[in-house]
Amino acid sequence: MTLLPTAGARRRRPAADDGDRGALSAPDWRRPAVRWGMGGTHVLLLVLLVVVGLGPMLLLAKFAVTPTQDILRTPMAVFPNGIAWENLERAWNDVQISRYFLNTVWLALGSWAVQLVVATTGGYALSVLRPRYGRVVQALVLSTMFVPAVVLLVPLYLTILDPPLLGRSLVDSFWAVWLPAGASAFNVLLVQRFFDSLPREVFEAARVDGAGPYRLFWSVVLPMSKPILGVVSVFAVIASWKDFLWPLLVLKDPAIQPLSVRLPAIEASTDLGVFLAALAIATVLPVAMFLAFQRLFLRGAGLGGAVKG
Amino acid sequence: MAATTTAPPRPAPVRPAGARRPPRSPAAWLRGGGLHNLVFLLPLLVVFGVFSWFPIVRAVLMSVQETNLVTDPTFVGLDNFRHVLADPLLWTAVRNTLYFAFLALLFGYPVPLVAAVLMREVRRARGLYSALAYLPVVVPPVVAVLLWKFFYKGGPTGVFNTILGWVGLGPFPWLQDASWAMPSLVLAATWAGAGGTVIIYLAALTSVPPELYDASEVDGAGLWRKVWHVTLPQLRGVLFITLILQVIGTAQVFLEPYLFTGGGPNNATVTVLLLIYRYAFQNSLGGDYGAATALSLMLAAVLAVFSVLYFRLTRSWSTS
After folding, report:
1. How confident is the model at residue A29 (pLDDT cuts 50, 70, 90)?
2. Coiled coil: which residue ranges (chain B) (predicted)?
3. CB crowding A120-139: b at 16 or more within 10 Å, else e
4. Mean pLDDT, rounded, of chain A
5. Do A298 and B276 touch (CB under 8 A)?
6. Residue A38: its pLDDT value, please?
7. Is B234 helix (H, G, I), strand (E, B) or coil?
8. N or C: which terminus of chain B carries fewer CB neighbours within 10 A?
């Protein structure tokens, strides 16, 4: 867990040979056999990665603007009968991808907000305030990590149908997706561990200066925690964008369904070229986010293996 | 805010391990900031209580009850479990899930490792390599499945069949044939997931101490021996973790069978989670919730073993 605060320090280290070397040493690299052998392997690997990683994306982009008849007859020919830009326009307007796109954005934003509120306030209470019963709460939060999501599926669905104290079903309400997203032990743990690593002297100084728990939370702890909030935010938005089964169950009204639920539903009734254009539109934002926050994504993915628990 | 400024400065919450404070009166609790603690914990307690702890308890109850949406649930003992275990489709689903997990390991376990070890040696534009490897992971899974479903179209005009036709192969019945369907699903799932594993390995590879390589070179080890005797042993922990993660993930596979084939052809791709979904939600009049929760608890019991292993491993890691 000490990985997080030091990640920046590691990045600053020069990528030179000493200290940041793989199995091959500098003298190894001076040998022609290694130079050419490894160099050739790397070129081959790059070609493979382009074909496998980028290839399907490029194909999708091509199909999104290819007339349906060409896709059906000669899928791999490069625009034999011109480009059909209208696929994109029809997907956005006629198939109402714009509306589902907006639903997806709303779902992601709400889930993000709920997750951030629960994780930061809870993490603050457990790490900084530390009430006596904190250990019990923490153990209960941690224990949910041992319960696979599949166990929650049916009882959670029935809870959404008839939530306690509310008196009305949450089905067909965004809250049905937003609120359960907040119950993420992973987030709470990640944030709490980060708060644990913050220097206590700063908190003490703030307290001596007369800051109460709310002031301390808002003006001291949160501003110091931007890195971890970034990681949690990216995880939250991506997870929400990917979610399929849960919104499928609790959002029955097509008008409020996200892309992930609508795309399979419209598959059969939509012109193939338009449908593929819709798929392309649904892919653009996550890919753009990845390209913009690449470092955050890759660091988060690397941590995924080591930090949990 | 006013309440906090009049309160005396709270003692530092850090206290010696094992120290127990005497019980306090409600007034002392309030003065000591007990209310503020509760205010901060409230979102967590409400959200976890209603959407995690309560449903988990309810799952256990429902597994021994007959639940429908009209009348009150009735206790039925282990009937739900008996009913599920007597379903011939269960064993098909278990077999298919194991087959999926096996193929996923076969396709998806060695490839990211080899790729990561090679990428570690890249000296220029390593970021480009990892970005390309990770790109499929950021594609929304539903889009990935629907796209691959289109690529997999049978007949000579399918995308994959056209490409393979250039070298004289095919056309193959990717999703239409019972023996082809599962490997096709796994191939798509591997494409969508392998990048994440590559990044995990790359992160682990950067923490291999360079001294070990230096030392093995002094002993005259070549590239292969360095990989075999230094790199792989150093990755042992993370290799085991990704293995467990993959098992936990593949045991709950749903999206691919649901969207690619709906469990067909001829039930060849019905998985355990798809069966749970069918029990609970396929019948629009209200499903067999008891059977669904019973089966999900049985699956969870199997997975709990792996979760505990995973937890112990990662914990011993982060403390070391």
Report:
1. confident
2. none
3. bbbbbbbbbbbbeebeebbe
4. 86
5. no
6. 84
7. helix
8. C
Residue of A147, A131, A261, A137 whose CA lies nearest to A188: A137
Q: Supply the Cα-derived Rg of chain A in whole angstroms.
A: 25
Does B314 have pLDDT greater than 50?
A: yes
d(CA B38, CA B29): 11
Class of B87-319 in CATH: mainly alpha
Q: Which tokens is A30 given?
A: 């001076």
- Residue A101 and residue A78 share a domain: no
Q: CA-CA distance, B273 to B257, in Å (whole number)?
A: 10
Shortest Cα distance, chain B CAs vs residue A109, angstroms: 16
Tell me how many domains chain A contains.
2
Strand partners, B75: B65
Select from A153, A186, A250, A287 the residue whose CB has the most chain B CBs within 10 Å, as the one to mutate to test that interface. A153
Q: Do A152 and A243 fall within a single domain?
A: yes
Q: Which of A47-61, A174-188, B61-75 has the lowest mean pLDDT?
A: B61-75
Structural contact between residues A162 and B58, judged by C-beta atoms closer than 8 angstroms: no
**B115 in helix, strand or coil?**
helix
- Which chain B residues have a beta carbon less than 8 Å from that of A153? 276-277, 280, 292, 296
Question: Rounded to 5 degrees, what are φ and ψ at B288?
Answer: -85, 80
Confidence grade of residue B20 (pLDDT, cut at 50, 70, 90): low
Chain A residue at shortest CA distance from B226? A23
Q: What is the pLDDT of residue B28?
A: 80
d(CA B118, CA A42): 7
Domain co-membership, A181 together with A120: yes
Locus of tokens 């709310």:
A214
Q: What is the per-residue pLDDT across A129-167, written as a single tens digit (0 to 9) for each? A: 888 899 999 999 999 988 888 899 999 999 999 888 888
Does residue A129 sit in the same domain as residue A64?
A: no
Least confident of A119-128, A296-305, B192-201: A296-305
Contacts with A171 from chain B: Cβ below 8 Å: none
Contact yes or no for B37/A166 (Cβ under 8 A): no
The gap from C-alpha B152 to its chain's centroid, in whole angstroms, comes to 25
pLDDT tens figures, A192-225: 999 999 999 999 999 999 888 999 999 999 999 9
Q: Which residues contact A297 (CB under 8 A, 6 or more apart)?
A: A234, A290, B134, B138
Segment B183-221, tens digit of pLDDT = 999 999 999 989 989 998 888 888 888 888 888 888 887
- Out of B115, B120, B299, whose CB is closest to A150? B299
Q: Is B154 a residue whose pLDDT tops 90?
A: no
Query: From the CB of residue A176, how many other CB atoms can be counted at a distance below 10 Å?
Result: 23
Q: Are B259 and B145 in contact (CB under 8 A)?
A: yes
Which of B24, B30, B41, B151 should we substitute to test contact with A (largest number of A Cβ atoms within 10 Å)? B41
Res A71: pLDDT: 86
| B188 interfaces chain A, CB cutoff of 8 Å | no
Q: Are residues A246 and A136 in the same domain?
A: yes
